């Protein structure tokens, strides 16, 4: 983000407008049949723009990619971009607009769980199809949504297990810091249940929530420091979302919190968010994801190459939700080809069991619960803003969207 | 402790055993052992080369080998560990370890570094590394390095550090460094088997009054049940010291939040308080100031001698940008709407949205990074162990400076005089030859410019994004109304009160509820005193 070029700036400004204007004028040299429309429902302004703008670009890149290969079933794919502006009710309105006015066949969108919760009834009512690319709290399953990010057992729980292991520092006390909405609150509830099952008492868990876009972290960071001075190894689990992370990490650095004394593992901070921060004071703090830009291997090299040549900036980073968007898009094209139809009901049936060698270096599979099997990776922040992978699961882990630590939903597991 | 050895100046291992008899036999043996090592370089070499291959293994192998290197006392270990810490140590596929420049750490010869990769760290290795480097650097000629080493040992403490530290304390001349070493020694003695030393250590750590010491004591309490009472006494001593310090820190945090509120509200105190214009685009002027800071920073980036001064330079730049925007807004729109507050409110709200979108088009929706200069980073330790963050401290200073500037401008300049005259009685001022329209424009531009200067401060603690201003507009109005419309003293007291009350409530209610409580409290307060804390009296207040 620091090195965003002027072309990029213009693209942000004109992207939505350009896509909307260009759409009716296109008459491509594709075979017969009308173009297939996909909706892009990501905030391009407001507090979540820091994270979501890159996802909009990823979908546009994939549209270019599939058209360069001759489209899907020989038909051209077109993107319809709307801006819900980090405004949760506006997400529902824009989703309705995509489905009813633009009649899109599939939608890629949402980052925060509150935005997904707000569009879910719309997609169910109008029988649309949403690909949701971000790790989330689980406790949800809709026939109209495919979740290509991680469920709690693919991110939150392994990350806390790592913090408690010898390699992770053997934490005995956990500070749960989060933004005040459904994802952090549910995740922390699951984590509390998990910590209890590991013998960590209520007194050794601290929980704090802040509003979106919170900027004054001095009191909370000072309290976490105090919480850490009770004679047991302490760690921070952060579910802070959006641009509140920048002042949070700045405060950690300013108050001299070193990762080897008080490591902080984040679930919503990736390469893209770190691009706006001076990461030198943060070296050693952790993030848990299912993909890092630093993953070795051919699928990732191809993915990075595709992105950097599309965005025309060899220094732009990739991150986990972008990889999940890429994986979801490719699985969708595979499913459409398999079903020989773009109808939601046909594609839904064809989606289950789709496999892809994902950029994370593992083969991912769409499970009957509409979630993916994914590997879990834990990375440490490095001075250059990249992550050094310090731990990973040997295999892809199957998603459990109904957590055993939420008693009222545990019996809904398949 | 300071006998004999101090005069000798003490090269590593060259110090004699302290002549007094209270010394522990184990310590004596360890010291003797250390001397033996240095007398037998061949053995040390073996241990050194034996520890090296671990550095080419997994994280737990690296940690073990770092620990081994740390206790060896071999001078060759220091460059290896330093290179590891700096991320410049490399390893080859066949398990050799290379120093920067492609030198084989074991043989000291140049080696082929073509296929070598950097040895990576994790937090466990970093912890081991800190302890090991601390032990090796205790003999450093640089006092700051010895101090850092003592702090590192304090955190990494182990029973083996006791003789090392005792020797180091004996030859330490710098009082500050020695105090750190004494604390580190107490920490090490806490995990050593010597019961008597342990008791003394508990008392010493209690007297130190540091949060870290408290953590150590509580940790030791579990493994030393017979010392529980002594430890409790020490912990209570620390708690007393900490509670005073905590109160001071909360006060500082409150003042810091208050100074941000003050900066954001000062401009409004002029435009709303003095002129009575409800300017909903006020937050956007703060945002313009923050973007001006960003632009100045980018402009200075190319010239190295100018770059560190970009922040001070952006203060006048931000003032001018926001003031110009304010003057255009006043001359273009607001002057047509004087006396119609509802229309002014709606229209300035619209202008705010236009400004936001304009900035979004020009700079993009993404946040812009304004870098803090080095003198604004990190924590400053005040006497008594009160920790204050540098950037917040500077913002308080800046807030006071801007307040004084505003007061001076209103009190002592011709422009201030004319402004007061127009506010008190427009018609008589006009008959005295004051061009009231020009004064209105200048006053509004002045208030907007102050908002721009607030943007410079805000860019240091918040995200520079197009919607930066929306977070400050409500707070600014709250401060001005609470303090009393038209009173600068009221704005100052109001801002600081709200900041401190917010920070005092936060630990009990959480960040979200604390804000709600403050809002409710202000509502009740305004019911009782509609004119705020410092109400204007007299005819001006009635109009």
TrEMBL record, chain B:
It comes from the Bacteria. Signal peptide: none annotated. One of its GO terms (biological process) is regulation of DNA-templated transcription. It is found in: Cell membrane. It holds the Pfam family BPD_transp_2. GO terms for molecular function: ATP binding; transmembrane transporter activity. The chain crosses the membrane at residues 255-278, 313-333, 345-363, 393-412, 477-501, 507-526. PROSITE patterns: SIGMA54_INTERACT_4 (PS50045). This is Urea ABC transporter, permease protein UrtB. It is a multi-pass membrane protein. Residues 1-165 form the Sigma-54 factor interaction domain. One of its GO terms (cellular component) is plasma membrane. Keywords: Amino-acid transport, Cell membrane, Membrane, Transmembrane, Transmembrane helix, Transport. The keyword Transport applies. InterPro entries: ABC_transp_permease, ABC_UrtB_bac, BCAA_transport_permease, Sigma_54_int. Its main location: membrane.
């Amino acid at each position: 983000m620091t090195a965003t070029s002027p072309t990029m700036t213009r693209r942000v400004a004109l992207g939505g407008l350009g896509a909307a204007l260009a759409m009716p004028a296109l008459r491509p040299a594709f075979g017969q049949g009308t173009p297939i429309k996909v909706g892009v429902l990501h905030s391009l302004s407001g507090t979540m723009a820091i994270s979501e703008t890159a996802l909009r670009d990823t979908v546009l890149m994939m549209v270019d990619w599939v058209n360069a290969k001759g489209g899907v079933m020989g038909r051209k794919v077109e993107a319809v971009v709307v801006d819900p502006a980090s405004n949760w009710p506006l997400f529902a309105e824009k989703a309705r607009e995509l489905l009813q006015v633009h009649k899109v066949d599939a939608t890629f969108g949402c980052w925060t769980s509150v935005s997904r919760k707000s569009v879910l009834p719309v997609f169910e009512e109008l029988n649309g199809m949403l690909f949701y690319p971000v790790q989330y709290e689980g406790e949800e399953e809709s026939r109209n949504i495919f979740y290509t990010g991680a469920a709690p057992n693919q991110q939150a729980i392994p990350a806390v297990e790592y913090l408690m292991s010898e390699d992770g520092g053997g934490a005995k006390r956990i500070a749960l810091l989060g933004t005040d909405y459904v994802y952090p609150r549910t995740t922390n509830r699951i984590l509390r249940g998990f910590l209890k099952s590991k013998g960590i008492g209520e007194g050794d868990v601290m929980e704090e929530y802040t509003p979106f876009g919170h900027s004054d972290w001095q009191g909370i960071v000072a309290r976490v420091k105090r919480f850490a001075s009770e004679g047991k190894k302490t760690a921070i689990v952060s579910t802070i979302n959006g641009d509140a992370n920048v002042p949070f990490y700045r405060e950690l650095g300013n108050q001299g919190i070193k990762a080897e004394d008080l490591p902080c593992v984040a679930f919503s901070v990736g390469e893209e968010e770190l691009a706006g921060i001076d990461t030198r004071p943060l070296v050693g703090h952790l993030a848990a994801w299912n993909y890092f830009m630093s993953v070795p291997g051919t699928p990732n090299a191809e993915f990075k190459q595709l992105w950097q040549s599309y965005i025309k900036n060899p220094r732009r980073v990739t991150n986990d939700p972008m990889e999940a968007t890429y994986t979801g898009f490719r699985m969708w094209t595979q499913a459409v080809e398999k079903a020989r139809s773009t109808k939601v009901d046909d594609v839904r049936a064809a989606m289950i069991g789709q496999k892809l060698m994902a950029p994370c270096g593992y083969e991912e599979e769409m499970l009957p619960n509409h979630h993916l099997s994914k590997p879990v990776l834990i990375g440490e922040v490095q001075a250059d803003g990249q992550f050094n992978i310090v731990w990973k699961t040997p295999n892809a882990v199957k998603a459990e969207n109904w957590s055993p630590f939420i008693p009222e939903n545990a019996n809904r597991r398949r | 402790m300071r006998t004999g050895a101090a005069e000798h100046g003490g090269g590593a291992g060259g110090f004699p055993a302290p002549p007094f008899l209270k010394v522990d036999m184990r310590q004596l043996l360890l010291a003797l052992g250390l001397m033996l090592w240095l007398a037998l370089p061949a053995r040390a070499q073996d241990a050194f080369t034996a520890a090296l291959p671990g550095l080419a293994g997994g994280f737990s192998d690296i940690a073990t080998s770092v620990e081994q290197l740390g206790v060896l006392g071999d001078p060759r270990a220091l460059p290896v560990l330093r290179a590891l810490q700096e991320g410049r140590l490399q390893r080859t596929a066949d398990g050799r370890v290379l120093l920067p420049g492609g030198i084989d750490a074991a043989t000291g010869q140049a080696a082929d570094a073509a296929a070598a990769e950097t040895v990576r760290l994790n937090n466990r290795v970093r912890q081991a590394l800190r302890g090991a480097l601390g032990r090796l650097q205790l003999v450093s000629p640089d006092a700051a390095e010895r101090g850092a080493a003592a702090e590192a040992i304090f955190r990494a403490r182990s029973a083996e550090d006791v003789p090392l530290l005792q020797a180091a304390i004996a030859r330490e001349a710098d009082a500050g460094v020695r105090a750190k070493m004494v604390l580190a020694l107490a920490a090490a003695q806490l995990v050593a088997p010597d019961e008597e030393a342990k008791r003394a250590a508990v008392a010493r750590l209690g007297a130190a009054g540091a949060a870290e010491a408290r953590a150590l004591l509580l940790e030791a309490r579990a493994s030393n049940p017979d010392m529980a009472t002594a430890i409790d006494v020490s912990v209570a001593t620390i708690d007393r010291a900490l509670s005073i310090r905590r109160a001071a820190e909360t006060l500082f945090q409150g003042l810091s939040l208050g100074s941000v509120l003050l900066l954001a509200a000062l401009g409004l105190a002029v435009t709303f308080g003095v002129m009575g214009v409800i300017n909903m685009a006020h937050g956007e002027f703060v945002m313009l100031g923050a973007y001006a800071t960003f632009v100045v920073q980018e402009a200075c980036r190319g010239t190295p001698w100018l770059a560190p001064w970009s922040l001070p330079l952006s203060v006048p730049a931000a003032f001018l940008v926001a003031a110009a925007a304010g003057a255009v807004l006043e001359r273009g729109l607001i002057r047509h709407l004087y006396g119609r507050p509802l229309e002014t409110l709606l229209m300035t709200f619209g202008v705010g949205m236009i400004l936001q979108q304009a900035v979004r088009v020009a700079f993009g929706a993404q946040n812009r990074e304004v870098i803090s200069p080095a003198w604004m980073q990190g924590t400053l330790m005040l006497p008594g162990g009160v920790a204050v963050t540098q950037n917040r401290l500077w913002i308080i200073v800046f807030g006071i400076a801007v307040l004084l500037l505003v007061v001076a401008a209103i009190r002592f300049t011709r422009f201030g005089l004319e402004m007061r005259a127009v506010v008190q009685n427009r018609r008589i001022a006009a008959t005295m030859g004051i061009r009231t329209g020009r004064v209105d424009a200048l006053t509004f531009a002045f208030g907007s410019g102050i908002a721009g200067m607030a943007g410079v401060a805000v860019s240091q603690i918040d995200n520079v994004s197009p919607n930066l201003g929306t977070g400050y507009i409500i707070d600014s109005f709250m401060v001005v109304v609470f303090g009393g419309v038209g009173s600068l003293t009221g704005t100052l007291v109001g801002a600081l009160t709200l900041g401190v009350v917010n920070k005092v409530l936060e630990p009990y209610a959480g960040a979200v509820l604390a804000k709600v409580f403050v809002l409710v409290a202000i509502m009740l307060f305004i019911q009782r005193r509609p004119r705020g804390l410092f109400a204007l009296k007299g005819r001006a207040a009635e109009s």
